[in-house]
Amino acid sequence: MQSLAASIRPLLRAFSIASKQRVDMVDPSLKVDVVLSESNRKACIEKFKSFPMPKLRNVAEAAVLVPLCLYKGELGFLYTLRSMKLTSNRGQVSFPGGMRDKNDVDLQETALRETWEELKISREKIDVWTTGNLIGKSDVNVMPVLAYIGEVMPEELEINPDEVEEVFVVSLQKLCDPKLISFTSFRRPLVTLPCYLGGKYRVWGFTGAITHIALECLVPQVYKYKFLSIQSMQKNESGEKELVSSDYNATRSKI
């Protein structure tokens, strides 16, 4: 009688071959050594720091970590699904992050602290590349912090169930695939933002907007999606909301 080990050996071999083929099919410009090269990193940092973003006046501040990671041999971004226990934006996809605490030295500190509180990823494992400009979102300005967190296994992360329902990764290959990109239009304020459909959950709204920025800066040679926008809503000195013209807007959805 054929042993169990002998019977599953062909299956394991087939899985190994399929995994290797999948990695080999990745666009050459999305390979790990290319994206993480010193020259690409430097170019990405310069673009991310200078990317034009509309911000609001006289509002609170928050920060999110944009975690580039390695998962199953491919680079991608790590996302969280907000806990159903939360009172706002529960069940929505986001990056780890939150409001600035009075004890935070700066907004980079906010992003690192929130990532630890949500996912128990220590700051020693986070290679911060750069911070971006503040982005106006409803009644808060949010700073994206781009970082590389190395290899991760989402299912093994120690998530905080009070803040996070689930963690998942979407590969750069899928995020750059035009067949897996759509858009969402909002009326109040008037804004159109990209929507990424290649992962377990839809990445859209404010998180989709930051994903778009990160991809344009990180892999512009592959990521060709363009969207036109827009006008943002903010309060003027009299307290009334007014339209402010901008080439890019990310004022809707969630942190």
UniProtKB/TrEMBL annotation:
<keyword id="KW-0460">Magnesium</keyword>
<dbReference type="InterPro" id="IPR045121">
    <property type="entry name" value="CoAse"/>
</dbReference>
<dbReference type="GO" id="GO:0046872">
    <property type="term" value="F:metal ion binding"/>
</dbReference>
<protein>
    <recommendedName>
        <fullName>Nudix hydrolase domain-containing protein</fullName>
    </recommendedName>
</protein>
<keyword id="KW-0378">Hydrolase</keyword>
<keyword id="KW-0479">Metal-binding</keyword>
<dbReference type="Pfam" id="PF00293">
    <property type="entry name" value="NUDIX"/>
</dbReference>
<feature type="domain" description="Nudix hydrolase">
    <location>
        <begin position="55"/>
        <end position="193"/>
    </location>
</feature>
<dbReference type="InterPro" id="IPR000086">
    <property type="entry name" value="NUDIX_hydrolase_dom"/>
</dbReference>
<dbReference type="GO" id="GO:0010945">
    <property type="term" value="F:coenzyme A diphosphatase activity"/>
</dbReference>
<keyword id="KW-0464">Manganese</keyword>
<dbReference type="InterPro" id="IPR015797">
    <property type="entry name" value="NUDIX_hydrolase-like_dom_sf"/>
</dbReference>
